[in-house]
Design goal:
The complex is a heterodimer.
Chain A: E1 5-10, E2 33-38, H1 55-58, H2 64-73, H3 76-94, E3 100-103, H4 125-137, E4 142-146, H5 153-158, E5 165-171, E6 176-178, E7 181-185, H6 192-210, E8 214-219, H7 235-252, E9 257-261, H8 267-282
Parallel strand pairs in A: 1-2, 1-3, 3-9, 4-5, 4-8, 5-7, 8-9
Antiparallel strand pairs in A: 6-7
Helix pairs in contact in A: 3-4, 6-7, 7-8
Chain B: E1 7-9, E2 16-18, E3 28-29, E4 32-33, E5 35-36
Antiparallel strand pairs in B: 1-2, 1-5, 3-4
Chain lengths: 283, 46
């Protein structure tokens, strides 16, 4: 399969992603990798500028009152461009411009519900992208795999009664299933082999038979040793996960896969894990 | 020296390029050095 990868990036004031885009050395110069970034108030827009999201699109997922509350935090623009990457990636995949994507975010996704947010998340970019794909591209079946160390309460709430959207969350919460939302319990301490076995089992049991048209991966590295959600994982585990999920996407949905950066705070781990995942997507 | 991942623009003709591999030189267009484009960093959770 002829693959091409999009990287969606916006410049941030925080330290976590300070090494980017420079840490993408050896990746950006590949002919099958496209870089979309933001934002440049002082230059004319180019086709490779990461475009923002109109407010009426935000309102399709989040209440106007919640959007107002996000505005009041002073972080609105950062939240908007964090969500914009996933939406732009989804559209470009279904326009046939790219096959898969990695989205850098400054604020995560999965703690943002229809009328609540928290835990470093403001807008649920995956939910907004799904709405856009349903409305404009006629896409009907979606899978979301969440390997951030924490439970995605926002994504769970948004898709609690959506049979066309499979949400698989691997976290410390109890195992449960509701419509097409599945929580897979992960022990508080686990090694790479056991975690990978859990993830592969979830992919085989739920994602493969669901036959989605695209897979979103809410990826966090907060479960890595030394992180705030440390459950004992090594940095290498994330690349192995990327290989498994990419392989499955290739088998069931023409390779369509979007990796959305979620939890994780350490700059050194970001530099270690992200380029490796993007290289896996592009290989 | 051009910087990896940075955008450069020709003020004369408007051509814009992305540096995908850094080297010692600076990109030139219309016989002038292209200007690096400064992005605006946004707030983030960290």
């Amino acid at each position: 399969m002829n693959m091409s990868t999009g990287i969606f990036f916006h410049y941030q004031r925080g330290k976590r992603l300070k090494d980017f885009p420079q840490a993408l050395n050896g990746i950006l110069n590949r002919g099958d990798v496209f870089f979309y970034d933001a934002f440049y108030p002082s230059k004319p827009a180019s086709p490779f500028d990461l475009e923002s999201i109109p407010i009426n699109i935000l309102h399709e997922v989040h209440t106007p009152e919640m959007v107002q509350r996000v505005r009041a935090t002073g972080d609105y623009e950062g939240a908007l461009y964090s969500a914009a990457g996933t939406v732009a990636a989804a559209k470009r995949i279904f326009k046939g411009e790219i096959t898969n994507a990695f989205v850098f975010t400054g604020y995560g996704d999965h703690h943002a519900g229809s009328d609540f947010f928290g835990g470093g998340c403001y807008f649920n970019s995956v939910a907004i992208a799904i709405h856009e794909l349903q409305e404009n591209f006629g896409v009907k079946r979606f899978a979301i795999i969440d390997t951030d160390a924490h439970h995605g309460d926002g994504t769970w709430e948004l898709f609690e009664d959506s049979p066309g959207i499979l949400y698989i969350c691997l976290c410390s919460g109890e195992s449960q299933e509701r419509t097409s939302n599945v929580n897979v319990h992960v022990p508080s301490r686990i090694d790479d082999d056991d975690y990978l076995a859990l993830a592969k089992d979830a992919l085989k049991k739920w994602v493969r038979p669901f036959i989605p048209e695209i897979i979103f991966w809410n990826w966090g590295y907060d479960g890595t040793v030394g992180e705030y959600g440390d459950i004992g994982l090594t940095p290498e585990l994330h690349t192995l996960l990327a290989s498994e999920i990419k392989k499955l996407a290739g088998e069931i949905c023409s390779g369509r896969l979007i990796v959305v950066l979620c939890g994780g705070s350490r700059r050194d781990l970001a530099r270690l894990t992200i380029p490796s995942i993007i290289a896996t997507l592009a290989d | 020296m051009a910087q990896l991942g940075k955008r450069y623009r020709c003020e004369a003709c408007g051509t814009e390029i992305l540096c995908t591999k850094a080297g010692d030189g600076n990109p030139v267009c219309c016989e002038k050095e292209m200007q690096i484009q400064e992005p605006k960093p946004l707030p983030s959770s960290d």
